[in-house]
Amino acid sequence: MKLFKFPYLVQQEILHNFEYKNLLLLSFVSKNMNKLIKSSQIARFKSVNFIEYGSGRSDEPLVYIPHKNTRYTILKLTGPFENPARHENDYFTLNISGKIVDVRVCIFHGLVVFSRSWEPVIKSIHNYLLNLFGSSVEYRWTTSTRTDLFEVFIPRLKNLSVLNTSCGENDMKTVDTYLLSSPVIKRIDFFIFCSLDRGFFSRCGYMPTEEPFPPESKLYQAQSIGVTQRELATPAVLRHYQGRQAFIKCERCENQDLIEFINRWKSGEAFRNLEYLEIEILISEVPQNRIFYATGTKYIDVTKRSPTHTLPKIFIDNGDDEPNTDPITSHAYVVRESDGHVASVQIQRDTFSFGVWDKTEEEFLRMVE
Amino acid sequence: MAPKKNSAKRPQPSTPKPSAPARIVKVQSSDGHILQADVRALLLSSTLAATIKGYDDENKPLEKLEVNNVVGFTLKLVLEWCEKHKEDDPAIAQAEKDKKNIFIPSWDRHFLTKLPMGNLFDLITAAYHLDITGLINYGCKTVANSAKGKSTEEMRELFGIPEPWEQPSTSTATWDD
């Protein structure tokens, strides 16, 4: 059978029926096949919103592609001691963007690439995928959650736009150094924790002033940020964030820090780009009256219906995720002194929500029914 | 009992239904072989259906259909497949194609996988010329499935992909345009 002799529409149909791992492998067979795949599968590749580099139970990088709201593994990078029983064939060599590697096809993980040195190989794989799928696909890197066993590993990859990292106190410097010399990343998710047994952290309670990243860190410049932090009392994001949408989960948050946040926004001194902030505080509740009083919060007449604030999310994890920010319908609002723009403020037990309107107070009040 | 997954989408095996007596016509291949087929089976081909409709509209007796681009051996396979599927709803095949969610029933899997790759190639090409959606779907899926677990060299051999230094033979391929 000569695949190239089929009419183009049949070639297209055959390739469309290929599983991604086999299509990826077929693309290595020849340059012309690679070209055919790219040209005939444009619509299919357009539906690939992201390619994610993650890790399984160990820290071995896996490459996922979304498939029907799940993640489908197309490639795995591993050391030389992979269990041979799971493979469909013997080793063969592959030239991935100039890097010669040994490969096998695995029932569970698509292509398994064997290497002792991961960083140069993952770079070659990424360059290959970037060429095949194009730059419109979102490329994501997720570090291992087993921070107790593995060091944070983030290779320098072109067009990486999402970083999802779990880091303890020893890894923060690694993450910060990585960000320092990288272009600004669209979305950063980090799960941050500190071991209270080590170093200057002591078991005397929460560290109220600890800042895991320096204020000038590029982490705070991400357009969208998701933070889950434990043990540190106040999310530093609340002081230094310069991006548009922030989603924070923390165990505690000092009232004074919330007050300071609102006042700095009001004065126009900080958070000029902020559109939406959501803080979920796991242990303590937020004293609504105290915060509103200390920030000079204004109120819409309680007999009237306040407008609902919601925005398209900059980052959507999966196809089935809610595409918009949680609606804020609150009678409380604050006004920024510099341009008169309004932000709705909502405090519901343990959740603080802040939604900035692209409207002046006058325009905002016109929406009130 | 657990509900059957996608049962509504999958073509069901043909079951005999009380219907009008079969209308048998002759079909001639490009190399002169004459075969016989039920018109209901031929209607799975949009190309042949249009020809048959033309005859019927003009009330002309349909004695023989000529299929100029398919040889006898392949045409026999096409007719065997069409005969098996003559009771199927063509909308299902189209829906499967549109959704790109093709499930190959066991009869078809057996029918297609037993063919040498060369014959499968001819069958898919014939299905394309005769515009038989279901057969194209299953044929293409079968070809794609045949790549499972293959190395790059095995794929090269299976699909006749020339080595980088080889010139491709002239064909209908559009890969080098």
How would you describe what is shown here?
The complex is a heterodimer of chains A (about 375) and B (about 180). Chain A is α/β, with parallel strands linked by helices and about 375 residues long. Chain A has one domain. Helix content of chain A is about 25%, strand content about 30%. In chain A, a hairpin with a 5-residue loop joins strand 16 and strand 17. In chain A, helix 8 runs parallel beside helix 9 (about 290-295). Chain A is elongated, with a radius of gyration of 24 Å. Residues about 195-210 of chain A have low confidence and may be disordered. Mean pLDDT of chain B is about 80; it is low at about 1-10 and about 165-175. Chain B has a single domain, classed as Potassium Channel Kv1.1, Chain A (2-Layer Sandwich), CATH 3.30.710. In chain B, helix 3 (about 70-85) packs across helix 6 (about 115-130) and helix 6 runs antiparallel to helix 7 (about 135-145). Chain B is globular and about 55 Å long. Chain B has a three-stranded mixed β-sheet. Chain B has about 180 residues and is mainly alpha-helical.
